[in-house]
Structure formats: structure tokens, C-alpha cells
Amino acid sequence: MEGTQRSQITSSRKNIWLAGIVWLLFLAPFFYLTYMQVNTYTSTLSNIPSFVYSWEKAIPFLPWTIIPYWSVNIAYGISLLICTTLREQFIHGVRLIVASLIACAGFLLFPLKFSFIRPTTEGFSGWLFTQLEGFDLPYNQAPSLHIILLWIIWLRFRAHTPKSWQCFLNLWSLLIAISVLTTWQHHFIDIITGFGAGVFICYLLPISSRWRWHFTGSKRSLRIAKNYALSATVFYLLAFVLQGPFWFALWPAITLTFVTLGYLGAGASIFQKNTQGEIPLSARIILLPYRFFAWCTYRYYLKQCQTPSLVTEGILLGGRPLYELNANAVFDLTCEWPRNKFSQNKLYLAQPQIDLLPLYPNDINKAMLSMEQLNQAGTVYIHCKLGYSRSATVVVAWLVYNGTVATLEDAIKKVSQARPHVILNPETREALQNWYSHFQHIK
């Protein structure tokens, strides 16, 4: 058996290496051709502007930093070979393609020129600068493709680097990021736009999750989507009309756009949270404004919801835990936040559900299967943000499913008595009734 497993692993690694070589044979000429063509075209234009802050004149020129600057090219190739699945490698390769396309589009639409005159450099560093200048003209500035690629590549190395080496990885990656300034290759605006583009690309092309779409057309979801869309429009107007420091408003505008899509049908998939409560770093950054707003509302209601409610023996209902749990297992219905320390060292499962919308019958069925698994460990703590709706729905269904009560109304009554603040609106009750009718039919 062990010999068979070793053979499968070896075969899988061979396939990944072979596919990685094929990717490199395509990406290397694709990268240089697209990058150089755009750079050459921009050099033919007249009056190319520069965007530079006055404080950037104080940035020193450090010739030796050309070494970490160049090292991203080696990491580029290795990143395709350290992937552990063909799916991971494929999405990573697509990310690299999209990075070049988005960067080149930015170079063409908003051409900029680097404004400092680089000093002459001798020795090994001078040789590396000479090689760089052989194909890199002082254009192709914002967004910095170097920074976009660094973010994409760093995420892959971060996923496969042992914890003992994580510090070195992070420090070297930071040195690469700084080197684009200290080699006088880019201005600060290029770094900011490159970082934003890199995060956006990795969010749109997730590796550990998949985008899903289930448009229900319910009036409630459309109403919530409309409110978020109007809020996003306000932030877009602030950014494009006022500009200057108000460009920062693009961040919440983009966040609210994705939340709008969530309520139109993408659901919890916009948060990219997996069953172990992990959320990719790019998703955390993109949706940070929404998560901050959710945190504020949570803190506002915290006094009312921080005490867990004992519904029946072995079942605790509450909000996102910020306290020690007297439970053996945790069932997390939130999609906004990753798993926190209070659920560590306990059997844990997450079923991310978007806030303010009811769980549909299929969602409830899936939750019951998870509850069966968690219930074997002992007392289960079931929570959403406040413990009022998403998690309450699961507890109601579970009381019927495991035979604690005879009817759905008895279950709703029992949960409401245990936790008076629960909110089971008409849409939620309808979804529960649809699930209950099907459950009675197959029981």
C-alpha cells in the first residue's frame, strides 16, 4: 500500500514538473514580448509625464539591491514547480498571464516615465544593471509589474514554506519590494497600484475556493443588493470626482461592489472562506472595509449576544465567540471572519452563509450532515455573527432532525425561549418549512 502511495506521489510530482516546464516555455516569451512591445511603443510617445512625490528625492540609490530585485525572476520559475496540484499550478499560471495583461493595459492607458537619472554603477551590481537596461526602458511604471508578480509569487511560496523559514521568506520579499525604489526603477505610486492589482488578481482567481452563483431573485436579496450598490456608487463618485486623497474611496467602493454581487447570487463565495475557517489573504484585504463595518455592528450588539444560550443538552447557541467556550465542537455559520483562537483545539467545521439571507433547504441539509459529525464529539457551539438568525436556523432544524422535538413549531418555540433575541423572519420560516416538508417525506 505504501509503495503504491509513493508511486502515485512520484507520478503526480512528475506531472507537475512537466506541466511547469510547459508553462515556463509559454510564459517566458509571453512576458518579455508583451512587456518589451509596450515599453518600445511608449518610448515613441512625446511628453510622457512622471508622478513622483517630493519626499521620494530622499530615497537613496543602493546598487546592491539590484540582487534582490533580480531574484524575483528566479522565484518566478520556481513558483510554478512548488505547486502540489495541477489545479493550483494552472490557476497560478493564469494569474501570471493576467498580471502581465493588466500591467500592460495600465502602461498603455496611463503611460508614465521614471524621472530620476540613475548613477553609473561598477562591479557585479553594475553588470546586473547593464543587463536590465538592455530591455527595460524608463517606462512601464504604474502598476509595477514587479510588485504584482511579487505578491502572486510570495503567496505561493508562503503556502509551501515551513514555518521555520517563513520569517526569511517575508524579509526577502520585503527587500524585493523595497528594491524597486532603491534601484531607482519605480516611483511610489507604481508600488501602490502594483500591490492593489496583485491583490485584486489573486482575489478574482482563488486557488483554495471556487466562485459560485445561485440567483434566487428574492425581493429581500434584491433590496439589500440595491442598498449596497448605491453605497458603492457614492464611494466611486467620491474617488473619481474629488480625486487626490479621495482615491482611497476606491477600496470600499470595490468591496461594496463584490458584496452587491454576493447578494445578487454569488453568496458567501465572495468571502472565499473554507470549511476550516481559513480566508485567503487577498480576500481579507479586498473585503476589509466590509469586515470592519461588520465588526462595528458586532461590537455594538455584543452586550446583548455575548452570553451563549443553552437550547438543549449538548447544544449551545451564540454569537461569534470572544470568550472561552464550554464546548467540544464548534459549527461556524459566519462568512465574514476567519476562525479565531476561541475555537482552536476543538472539532470545528464552517459552513459560510451570507448575512441577512435565509438558509435554503439544501443549505439546511448540508448543515444537518455537519451537525451529525460534530455532535459525536459532545457539546456543540453553533454560532453566526450574533447568534440570532443563521445559527438559530440550524439549531431549529437540528432539534427536529435528531428527534428532540416533534414539530417545526415546537423547535422554533424552544429556540426562541432559550434565546429571546433570535430573528426568524418570514423568508427564513418559509425555507425551514420547505426543508421540514421534504424531511418528513423522506423520514
TrEMBL record:
Q: Output the superkingdom of the source species.
A: Bacteria
- SUPFAM superfamilies under this entry? (Phosphotyrosine protein) phosphatases II
GO molecular function term, any single one: phosphoprotein phosphatase activity
- Domain named Tyrosine specific protein phosphatases is located at 362-430
Note the PANTHER family from the entry: OS01G0859400 PROTEIN (PTHR47216:SF4), PTHR47216
Name used for this protein in its record: Dual specificity phosphatase, catalytic domain
Residue runs in coiled coils: none
Identify the species of origin: Proteus vulgaris
Q: Which UniProt keywords apply?
A: Hydrolase, Membrane, Protein phosphatase, Transmembrane, Transmembrane helix
One Pfam family of this protein, by short name?
A: DSPc
Read off the lineage from the record: Bacteria, Pseudomonadati, Pseudomonadota, Gammaproteobacteria, Enterobacterales
Q: Which InterPro entries match?
A: Dual-sp_phosphatase_cat-dom, Prot-tyrosine_phosphatase-like, Tyr_Pase_AS, Tyr_Pase_dom, TYR_PHOSPHATASE_DUAL_dom
Positions of transmembrane segments: 16-38, 58-82, 94-117, 137-155, 167-185, 191-207, 228-247, 253-271
